[in-house]
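Standup notes
- DV: blocked on the single-chain target, sequence here:
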Amino acid sequence: MSNKTLVEMIEDIDTSYLTEQEKNAAIVSAQTSEILVGSVFAAVAWVKKVASKGFSIGSAKPSHA
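- DV (later): unblocked, structure below
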């Protein structure tokens, strides 16, 4: 299994048929996709962490002064 980033994979293939602008656009798109996927995974991990602690909304008894 390869742990290369999308950018590394793009740079490893023959892109001689692409203009420099098209290659740069592909790299920017790949970087954006990696950031988006990383953010989604981080959000899912955070939700799992919060959910594993349990939701205690409204379970606290009100204190009267």
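- Follow-up: Residues 1-39 form one domain.
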